[in-house]
Amino acid sequence: MYYYGKKRQNYCKSTLRNKIAMVYSILNTQNIQRPKKIWTLKRYGRFWEQNVPYFSDKLFKESFRTDRNCFKRLVEMLPNLRKMNTTFRETIPLEKRIAIALYVLGSSTEYRKVGALFGVSKPTVCLILNEFCKGVWQALAPEYLPDNFLNQEKLEECVKGFDIIGFPQCFGAVDGCHIEMKPKTGEAFDYHNSEGWNSVVLFALVDYRCRFLYVNVGSPGRHNDSQIYETSDLKNVVSSTLLFKKNARKIGKTVVPVMLIGDSAFPFSETLMKPYPFETATSEEQKTFNNTLYKARRVVDNAFIHVKARFARIGKGLDNHPSNISTIIKCCCVLHNFLNTHNSKITRQWLVEAAKYNKPQPKYVTTIDDFKKTPERIRNSIAVHLNSALMDADETP
Description:
- By secondary structure, the chain is an alpha/beta fold.
- The protein has 17 helices and 7 strands.
- Strands 3-2-1-6-7 form a 5-stranded mixed sheet. It has a two-stranded antiparallel sheet with strand order 4-5.
- The radius of gyration is 29 Å and the shape is elongated.
- The mean pLDDT is 87.
């Protein structure tokens, strides 16, 4: 009797297994995907879906640091950031990914709070930001911050632009900006700058419209601007090109090539003009030259101020992993050029807020090659020319 019951039980199990196998076979034949069970934490942040669609243009720009038209352009230019749905869950839409990244860059809000606002996890916010920054650099840099920035057309445009500002034969202004960061304990010494805080340097060449032409990001804070320039690709490009000499013109009796301008931290040369040392700038020509050069090179200071004001995460200091910091800063520089090109202006309130967090920038002075004959002759000719133009302007009724 027991044997008969056991045999029947095995028969029933076998029959059931066969029926289950047949059902799975039918489903596979018809390519029907069965939803897989997976545990997920329900999140209720609906800021993007429920609040943002009703934002005014002003509030949208305040939240995402750009207007709606530029936001739509970014969506069109970054299709590679779009993800496909899986059998596990629906992906985060492309528009929401870009919104999360811009919100993170435009504020110093913790990732945890941003995640709660948008209904995603903290690791997801980090992942989206890193993917966005890499995507922007790859997709937008070739157009808005290209490697081949030095060509005849660009040179003529920039020289004309600086002529309007008041400084002749200038292609662009160079300077460095220290951005606060938190290095690893073992690397803290290298990033400790002369003002007593840890930083990474954004070294840049900027044109007359306050747009970046060249950026060098990642040098530790203990390096000064002159060191970075001397080892940069920019010096090689400027020194090796014939365009600067080809577009030279006479000012007074001196042939003046096109040049860069910088402050007292840089070495003095035919391709990089700097002010007279202030303790020796006693003549009116020298004072006029220094004032005019300072006015012209203010474009690079404005570019740094605008980037830090628009993207508050840079202005208030980066707490990201050191390996991601350079990508984030370069992304912000490209976005600055992109938004500048499409006339998405900086608001006064952003500038006021950024000024609260400004830390004193390290100041350097170098006297390397300060008394070279040819650069000195060029500087003197420009100084006389600028002072004459100023006196003529004063005499004009």
